[in-house]
Every structure is written in C-alpha cells, then in structure tokens.
Design goal:
Leucine-rich repeat, LRR (right-handed beta-alpha superhelix); 2 domains; four-stranded parallel sheet; disordered C terminus; alpha/beta; 12% helix; elongated
Length: 326
C-alpha cells in the first residue's frame, strides 16, 4: 500500500513539475494576449503577466485552463463569462486550436461569429448565450465534429438554421431559442443520433412537425422538444409517437391545427405537454388522463370541445443557469 501511495505522489509531483517548467505554446500566448488587449483592462484585471498559463510565481489567468502536451503547455479551456465584455467576438480565439471548451456567455459581444470558428476541431462545448451576437449562424460550426453542447440562445441571430449542424455526430444539446431565426427547421437534425435536447423557441420559424420528422428513425435520443412561440402550422402527426424517449413537448403559441392524435398519449415517458395558444380542435383522448407520467398538459387558448381539461398546474418554464450545467 505504501509503495502505491509513494508512486501516486511521484506521479502528481511530476505532473506539477512538468506543468511548471513547460513552456506555453507561443501561438496560444500570442492569441490570449491579443484577446487581453481587445477586452480592456477592466474585464481582465486578473490577467497578470504575459503567460496565460502562469509564469514563475504568477498563477494561470482567471478562466484559462492549460494542459501539457509534450514539452509545451496549451490552452484547453477559456471561460470568461458574466463580466460585461463589450465589442465584437474576439477572432483571436480561433487561434486556440486545442480548446475543448469556450464559454463567453452573459456578456455584451456583438457582430457575427467569424467563420474561422470551424478551426477549433477539438471543441466540445461552445457557450455564447446571453450576448448581442448578430448575423447568421456560420455553417462552419458544422466542422466541429466533437461538439456535444451548443448554446447560441438569447442573441440576435438571423437567417435560417444551418443544416450543417446535422454534421455534428456527438451533439447532445442544441439551444437556439430567443433569436430572430427564420425559415424551416432542418429535418436533417433528426439524423443526430445523440441529440437529447432541441430548443428553437421564440424565433420566427415556419413549417410543420411532419416535415421535421420526415426521415425514418428521426431523433432517436430526443427527450426535450421546444418549438414554442414560432409560426409553425399543420397538425401533430401520429408519427411523433415514434420518438419514444420524449419527455417534454412544448408547442405553445404557434398555429397548429386539428385533433390531438391518440398515439401521442402512448409516448411512454411523456411528462410535460404544452399545447396552449394554438388552433387545436376536437377532444383530448382519454388516454392522456390515464398516462402514468404525464404531470402537466396545458390546453388553454384552443378550440377544444367542452370538457377538455388541463392536467396539473401550468408553470412557466423559465430558463436558469441550472439548465446549462454540463
């Protein structure tokens, strides 16, 4: 047992020694210093020294995580959020080629995401929510093959959702709500085998659910589907019940019409169903009232026949930081 402990201590000491005596890659030093200059001293007051990974007695810069690769240190994570960064997206970020996590959320970044974002091939988490970013979502994001979490919500993006997002084989969470996106939701997103959460609420999207799930086996892992507050139309197709992992279906404030298919009541894990403020007609199948997991079904603002009642007490689904823990 003692020998194992000694070996562990030696390994830890060697790791710290290597990190302390390795040189930071000049490319990353140059990129972070360019970012530092562009952000202004008030934001990066804790960024002391010339080396973002630490130099001598100076610690690494706040929000910067480094790791050792061979004889060099590289920047693998950059988290500078909620510090009121003002100005365009810092293009020098795209020179940090070993980044796995980029989190600049809750700032005041403006302008477009540069197409050079596609250079960050190792990126797993891209969090730019709660900024003032504009223009279209660059299709080059589709080149980030390792991306698992994409947060672009609460900005001012316009144009269509790029179908290139369907080229992200490991994507699990896609947040695009509260923008100015138009057009149809690409049906190609349904081919994402790992996608669990899709939120495109509060945009200007059109089209139908039938178009969205037109591929066989669409959205095999999807749990949460947020389509609320758009201009979507048509009915709810019975094929939606093929998405057997669905737990939340949020269709409020659209232009949906027709009856609610009986098959939807047999989605096994369905827990929250929001149908309010559409143009649905007919009756709610009795099976919904017998569903073992359905906690809330909101039906206000439709043209259902008398006797249709909600299930549970409606609660506004508010976005909080806990929704974004990764």
């Amino acid at each position: 047992m003692a020998s194992r402990c000694e070996l562990l201590l030696i390994c830890i000491f060697s790791l710290f020694f290597a990190l302390a005596h390795s040189k930071t890659l000049k490319r990353d030093v140059k990129a972070l210093n360019e970012i530092k200059a562009s952000l202004g001293w008030r934001v990066v007051y804790s960024w002391v020294g010339d080396d973002p990974c630490g130099d001598g007695d100076l610690p690494p810069w706040s929000g910067v995580t480094c790791s050792t690769q061979g004889d060099y240190r590289v920047v693998t994570e950059l988290e500078v959020y909620a510090v009121s960064i003002v100005g365009p997206f810092p293009i020098a970020v795209t020179n940090l080629l070993d980044l796995t996590r980029l989190d600049l959320h809750n700032n005041k970044l403006t302008g477009p995401i540069p197409p050079q974002i596609g250079r960050l091939k190792r990126l797993k988490v891209l969090n730019l929510r709660w900024n003032k970013l504009q223009d279209v979502i660059p299709p080059e994001i589709g080149e980030l093959k390792r991306l698992t979490h994409l947060y672009l919500s609460f900005n001012s993006f316009k144009g269509e959702i790029p179908k290139e997002l369907a080229l992200l084989p490991e994507l699990r969470y896609l947040y695009l709500q509260e923008n100015r996106l138009i057009g149809r939701i690409p049906a190609e997103l349904g081919t994402l085998q790992s996608l669990r959460h899709l939120d495109v609420g509060n945009n200007h999207l059109v089209g139908t659910i039938r178009e969205l799930i037109r591929f066989d086996g669409s959205f095999p892992s999807l749990r949460n589907l947020y389509l609320n507050n758009n201009y979507l139309s048509g009915g709810i197709p019975a094929q939606l019940s093929n998405l057997t992992n669905l737990e939340i279906v949020y269709l409020s404030y659209n232009k949906f019409i027709g009856n609610i298919p009986f098959a939807i009541a047999h989605i096994p894990k369905l827990t929250y169903l929001y149908l309010d403020h559409n143009q649905f007609t007919g009756r709610i199948p009795d099976a919904f009232y017998k569903h073992p997991f359905l906690k809330e079904m909101y039906v206000e603002g439709n043209m259902f026949k008398t006797g249709v009642n909600p299930i549970g007490t409606h609660k506004v689904l508010e976005v909080s930081d806990s929704d974004f823990v990764v």
